[in-house]
Automatic annotation (TrEMBL):
Record bears the keyword Transmembrane: no
Protein name: HAD family hydrolase
Any one GO molecular function term: hydrolase activity
UniProt superkingdom: Bacteria
Amino acid sequence: MPALVASDLDRTLIYSAAALALTMPDARAPRLLCVEVHESKPLSYMTETAAQLLTDLGDAAVFVPTTTRTRKQYQRINLPGPEPTYAICANGGHLLVDGVSDPDWHAQVTARLADQCAPLAEVREHLLRAADPVWVRKHRVADDLFAYLVVERELLDEDWVKELAVWAENRGWTVSLQGRKIYAVPKPLTKSAAMREVARRTGADLTLAAGDSLLDTDLLLAADQGWRPGHGELADTGFTAPSIRVLPDRGVLAGERILREFLGAVGGA
């Protein structure tokens, strides 16, 4: 029976230049591979060693990229190794099979959201009305499933984020602050539900996961074994559980370490 590895991407396996955390002397910095280009500019990286580890992992297990990114944002990424058969986008709102969103899965998700939480339009209207233009740079809706703001983090009122979280909680939504983005996501929209669906389809008898943000919490808890790096929202809050291994590594080297852990768990290293 195959092992299934569902891993978050941004700040877990791939890193922007600002998130690399290259704290070693320049001469000892790892060689980097660019895995995402946007508007003709390099955007995301992993180490060359991590690229080889990911290639090995793709041969040893069912690797499922698992991200809050929209389908369009995910498809900019050019990961090394075998092309994944499955990918989870929009925080579980889309299950891609050979690059195409599964319409039955998406219909199930949208029906669940309509039944269990306030509509996206209400949340978006609140964000537009309540957010301060002083620190908001962009308002975005992702795949008609959730909303997020791009902000100037140094100007952001952190108490406002806490107040937003309380407001959202009462409407069946959750709030996550990741770097320069504030996400408002319906509670039933989860990575874990999509991971379970892929496990059902593939017959996987072992599920492994990694992630760094609050939106990865359900994914980590649903897996048989999970890992989180030493940076990100989960590290900031001290989140852990018996099935989750806390790694001290931070930045792009954490991505390398996570892939080594995955390979060790599936017997590929």
